[in-house]
Each structure stands twice: as structure tokens, then as C-alpha cells.
Amino acid sequence: MNTQSLKLQLRTLKLPSFVEYHEEIAERAGREGLDFTECLRQLVELELSEREVRKIERLRKRSGLPPEKTLASLDQERLPAKVRRQLPALCEGGFAERAENVLVFGMPGRGKSHALSAIGHELVHRGISVLWRPAYQLVQRLLVAKRDLALEAELRRLDRFDVIVLDDIGYVQQDREEMEVLFTLLAERYERRSVMITSNLVFSQWDKIFKDAMTTAAAIDRLVHHSIILEMTGKSYRSEAAKKRNGSGDSVGARKADAR
């Protein structure tokens, strides 16, 4: 069999690393006297290693995670001590295997989104599928699916993700239809898949999101039943950054930054 035919067959078998490295391994075998089994082992290891790299890259692209909000860029010294202690275990992803939720509360500018994005990046690195979306955006996606009589199909697509991150749920002021599709998503994932949520509203204020008291209670009950709750306290990252930019006395600029 000539080299081109072999490459074609390896591509047909979807073994790109075999295609790329088989000649190099064959030359090394000639120099070092490697037997067939050793050559095959090296090719298989290369294929598996690069396949994992490609898988992680696909997961990262599909996730929609903010590329700049990683664990490396997260200032962990500014996190509350309890959150800092919980962070390593969350990054390992055991909660996703157990279908637990992660709920992060705090005033604007306390690093809620960055913390969850950093965890999301670490999960992807471990081969866990993650979808990051602003809450309002995902709600609109579900609403469009419902209007097109395709909500069930859309929920099945979302079910492929081990973890869904809903960022800034506290800013979503839904009407009844929007509230219903959000509740449907949370109920569908209950005890099966994980959600991670950031909110500037504590649970007692969630009637602003769900409007209806019974639906609010049911949503909170499902989320809290298997959950890890993080409270982000301390000073606003954004207001302090604004002070540094504008001078420490510019409290108006700091307040404007904190409100965003």
C-alpha cells in the first residue's frame, strides 16, 4: 500500500494524528528498533491526547464563556474567605456530576460573573460541557422557541450541556410568558443537570422575576434543594477601578461605575 492510500484510509477512519505522525513514528522505529506494538502504542497515545485537546476546544467555543474572565485573571484575594475556600472544589466539577446548582448572590460589581466564568473555564478544561448566557438572552431564546412550537426541541438541545450559567438573573423583569419558559427550564433540569446563577436580588426579592408567589416559591425550592450558595460581599470592583482612573476623590464616577 502506498503512502497516499494509507493516509486516505486513516482519514476515513477519522484518525488525523495517525495521518500526521505515522511516518515520523516509522522513522523512529527504524532508528531505535521499536517493535510494532510500541509504534502502535505511541500513535494511539498521540491520537487520544490530541482528540482530547480538540474536544476541549470545541467545548470552549460552544460555551460562550467570556474569554477574559478566567481563573488566572480572577483576583482571588478579593473574594470572601468562604468563597475562596470553596473555589477549588467547584473548579473540579463534582457538583456538576451530582447535578447540583451554584447560586451566587451579591451587589453589582462584586465579581459574581467573573467567579462563575472562571469556574466554567475550569469545567470545560475537564471536559464538562458548559453554556454561558446572560439570563435575558436565554429567556428570549426559549420564548422564540415556544412561539414557534419548538420549546421541547430547544430544551433537548440545552439538555446536552452539563452546566448552564444564567448570568444576571436579577436584571430580568419578565412578563408571564417569559417567566413560564424560565421556570420550565429550571424544572426540566431539576436533579438532572446543573445550573449556575448570578443574582443581585436575594430570594425574598425574586417575586420581581417570577411575579407569581407560588411560581417564585417553586423555582426557589428546586434551585435550593441541591445547591451551593456563594455570597459575594466587599467593595465593588468597578467603583474602585473608576476611583483609580478618575482620582480617589471622584465618588460620582465611582457610583456610576457601580450601577452598571
CATH topology of the largest domain: Rossmann fold
Average pLDDT reading: 87
CATH superfamily of the largest domain: P-loop containing nucleotide triphosphate hydrolases
Distance between the termini: 65 Å
**Strands, count:** 5
Model regions low in confidence, pLDDT < 50 over at least 5 residues: 252-260
Helix content: 55-70%
Sum up the overall morphology in one term: elongated
Which CATH-level-2 architecture of the largest domain?
A: 3-Layer(aba) Sandwich
Classification by helices and strands = alpha/beta
Radius of gyration based on Cα positions? 24 Å
Largest beta sheet: what is the strand line-up? 2-3-4-1-5
**What's the total helix number?**
13
| Major beta-sheet overview | 5 strands, parallel
Number of domains: 2
Query: What is the CATH C level class of the largest domain, in words?
Result: Alpha Beta
Note the beta-strand portion. Answer: 5-15%
List the helices and strands and how they pair.
Layout: H1 3-12, H2 16-32, H3 36-63, H4 81-92, H5 94-97, E1 101-106, H6 112-125, E2 130-134, H7 135-147, H8 151-158, E3 163-167, H9 176-189, E4 194-199, H10 207-210, H11 213-225, E5 227-232, H12 237-246, H13 251-259
Parallel strand pairs: 1-4, 1-5, 2-3, 3-4
Give a summary of the structure in a few sentences.
The chain is an alpha/beta fold and 260 residues long.
Summary keywords:
260 residues; 2 domains; 5 strands; elongated
